[in-house]
């Protein structure tokens, strides 16, 4: 699968949807709306003698027919999700510029008219399974050993935006277009809770909608946002503790030390404090952002990267200003 | 050794011979007889006489002196004779005996004296007398020795002189030999003139030459005679050839005269033939065989400058071979061209002379006339060749693209002006004004060939001289110096990159076909745009039947406005800044504003139309005015619409060469706006939303993916909308 030539118009209309750092932390993979995955060398781009060329991908290949909405790295492989299929690429092979998929799996979908997309993937380290969620409203769980889809979690009434794993309890959290955050027990595959965020007046924003497009957890705390405002929840009491006054709809939020970082509509990365105040908004080059990734595995290349509706991926070495941009 | 030197030396030798033996002798005597030696020395000659005549007694010395002068010679002669008779060995023995006897006597005297015998006693006296006799003997011997020496010396000298004479004779003889040898050499080296004459070979000579010249009986053996005979034969032959040459000359003159006569006859035929030609013109026209016209064109073509000539030939050749609808003609003042081409060097000289004069004048009254003179110089520099080419490209629909090619003589570049004549009236569309404008019609025929600046790098320096800052000021007057025009005329400048080493006709030929095709494509594109624009201005989007399947049957959004914009106006729009930043907008592009409306929603689309349309797709940037203003920057769905319109040209371009691309893009914009609006009200919560836009399009899902995009992709036979 070789990359087709991107013209300037294609570049102009490119969106970056997903990112994943390699297990060694020296490479960054990014997926765009044309189904391409680009691999960037962070060590080259961050080195003191970096040139224009080192901000270009070392490898660019077409991985799927549809947009690559989700990328995930295991210890050895890069998993990418396209239109209804999951492909795995060995990082070692990718670095050697070998773009042959290690394997490709398709969840068992019931619909046939339109192939559902896959919006989110997470690894459950406890039983080495891959949890994927997307367009068919269901969560599919695949055994990574055998490659068999062993169970399906049904409950959402619209497509699933995001997934998140709560390690201590072994719980899977899912947020969807239907505005619900559902909590599932990964051992029994049964629903535990369902929070309909849009029903809480503190965070509801009916002018946007009710969908939940970002989820993150940290022990007993959960972040969720989307149509409703980004809010911090205390899971044991199942109540929102703080609501962040961010104007746009958020698409990705993470806990980082004592901060909450969030991206979404609007050309900036928001730094929020747990108390509910927005500490800073850092401008970026794309006009709206889809994905934010932190490279914490490798202390040498500790960066934050964000991508959105542009062919550029902004790199932050210091989290309070944009250092440079990688470019497709 | 020269004889002079020998002579000079001789006296010296003699002198030294006279001195040294005396000294030697003196020394020898002093050893033995120190008491008497000085005495003997002083009276050498006298003692000789004393000894012979009178045996002893110094008392007689005075007397003998008197006759020595008279008798000396005789005595010397006698002594010499005596010398010859004596044996030197015997003399030596005598000398030895005498010396021994003398020594014995001395010893006896000594003894006696020691014995107390007094001086003057008999014994002593006796012995003294005996000693004196011995002394005389010694003296005699001494003299003899001297004479022998002298004699020997004389003999040596004589022999030496003889040797000298012989040596001189030898030298003379050697010299003579050398001289004779030289003379012989000179004779041997003598070259005769006949050696440079190339003669026929000997065999040939004996075969061809008559016997009275060759005389074989003499010449067979005598090389000298042979050469003489061969020379005679050569002379004979040359004489014959000279005669032949004369006869040839006369015959040549005769033939020339005949030719002259015939020529006169032929030229007298010409008027008659011309009359016949004149008479045949109507017939030619009737039969559609324009021989006459072609002939005339060829006649005129001789006066074309080389680039235009190349263009004429190549365009004509291409027209004949591949393109029946291409015609080439020459226009302009032929007489002026003739005047220009006849004395090219003279005119240039004049020019430079007048330049020099001008310069002189300039220095005199620089201030007053400098402006006017610069103007004149500029005009001169930008002068066009009086002849120009007109290439007409006819299209199938009857419209014609006229291309006028000019040659700027002093800048050595070609320029082109264009005119389009159409079969139908095209005055309808206001926004189409720029489309067939001769200024921009051929812009960027090849990528980034704007035709504003001169492609000849040396022009830069020429311009500096006369104060022209940029050629683009003169483009509207002189025409555009596009690079492809230079190539068609076979001109290649180094700034073109010079990838191919082609020059002249080969260069022109290599570009002809592609350029003509591009020109046709450009004209077709512009004409079809022209037509499309006039319907767009009437808010009708013309969608041809081939492209119907791209769009659903019912499209509610409609175009309400289609206007032209300037580059300036375009850059001032807020929602196109990202396009400007991406470097996708050039000043040569054409800019339009399309407004698509549905109900209260209104989309403004800024369109960038590249002159190379449809090779380069038009680029749309959107701004939606509905419940506040949204643009592609702030709304991901609107961005998706932009991408749907801009990116998928292969779906939208329709049948080749894609002349319906623009209208299909506008139609897709309308369809996407429908989808956008119909799904928008649904997304929130359908019950509360305003039902201004009831859902009519069939969509599988209204949102998908993290950015919640709407389904903008139309699936043809089923008629539903899905996501990409």
TrEMBL record, chain A:
GO terms for biological process: mRNA export from nucleus. WD repeats lie at residues 153-194. It holds the Pfam family WD40. GO terms for cellular component: THO complex; transcription export complex. Keywords: Repeat, WD repeat. InterPro entries: THOC6, WD40/YVTN_repeat-like_dom_sf, WD40_repeat_CS, WD40_repeat_dom_sf, WD40_rpt. Belongs to the WD repeat THOC6 family. PANTHER family: THO COMPLEX SUBUNIT 6 HOMOLOG. This is THO complex 6. It comes from Phoxinus phoxinus.
Automatic annotation (TrEMBL), chain B:
The keyword Nucleus applies. It is found in: Nucleus. Residues 346-360 have a biased composition (Acidic residues). InterPro entries: THO_Thoc5 (IPR019163). It comes from the Eukaryota. Coiled coil: none annotated. Its main location: nucleus. Keywords: Nucleus. It holds the Pfam family FmiP_Thoc5. GO terms for cellular component: THO complex part of transcription export complex. GO terms for molecular function: mRNA binding. GO terms for biological process: mRNA export from nucleus. Residues 335-345 have a biased composition (Basic and acidic residues). This is THO complex subunit 5 homolog. It comes from Phoxinus phoxinus.
